[in-house]
Design a protein that fits this description.
Blueprint (H helix, E strand, L loop, with lengths): L2 E5 L2 E3 L5 E8 L7 E7 L6 E6 L6 E3 L7 E6 L4 E6 L8 E8 L7 H10 L5 E2 L3 E5 L2
Parallel strand pairs: 2-11
Antiparallel strand pairs: 1-3, 3-8, 4-5, 4-9, 5-6, 7-8, 9-10, 9-11
């Protein structure tokens, strides 16, 4: 059974850090492009950061550049999102996704399109991140 399980969310003060984890089971992450997405109340899901199968190419949405880092540990079949200098606008439910056939011509394309066309990926159920003082 294909499954992705996120963890690491919680309440953090502005300026703080969190590391999200996404453990995969039932399949091997090596063969998939991966991504982190978020959805705030009343807003559409957006691609936060994505990584190609090869790990060479990454994409970050402008609002998180320089603050967030995506990574994966294939030996642990796990994806991570290190989030530093958190802001209240980062408050959202964060989802990880594994994309077997990345759409588009770039990691950015994949990230944007996967956020809209959910059927393109396997999804976790999400973890809530709240940034507040």
């Amino acid at each position: 059974q294909v499954q992705l399980v996120e963890s690491g969310g919680g309440l953090v003060q502005p300026g703080g850090s969190l590391r999200l984890s996404c453990a995969a089971s039932g399949f091997t992450l090596d063969y998939y492009a991966i991504g982190w997405f978020r959805q705030a109340p009343g807003k559409e899901r957006e691609g936060v950061s994505c990584m190609s199968r090869s790990n060479i190419n990454t994409y970050y949405t402008d609002s998180v550049k320089g603050r967030f880092t995506i990574s994966r540990d294939n030996a642990k079949n796990t994806v991570y999102l290190q989030m530093n200098s958190l802001k209240p606008d980062d408050t959202a439910v964060y989802y990880c996704a594994a994309v077997p056939s990345p759409p588009g011509n770039s990691v950015q394309d994949m990230c944007v399109m996967t956020a809209t066309y959910y059927d393109m990926a396997y999804w976790g159920k999400g973890t809530l991140v709240t940034v507040s003082s």
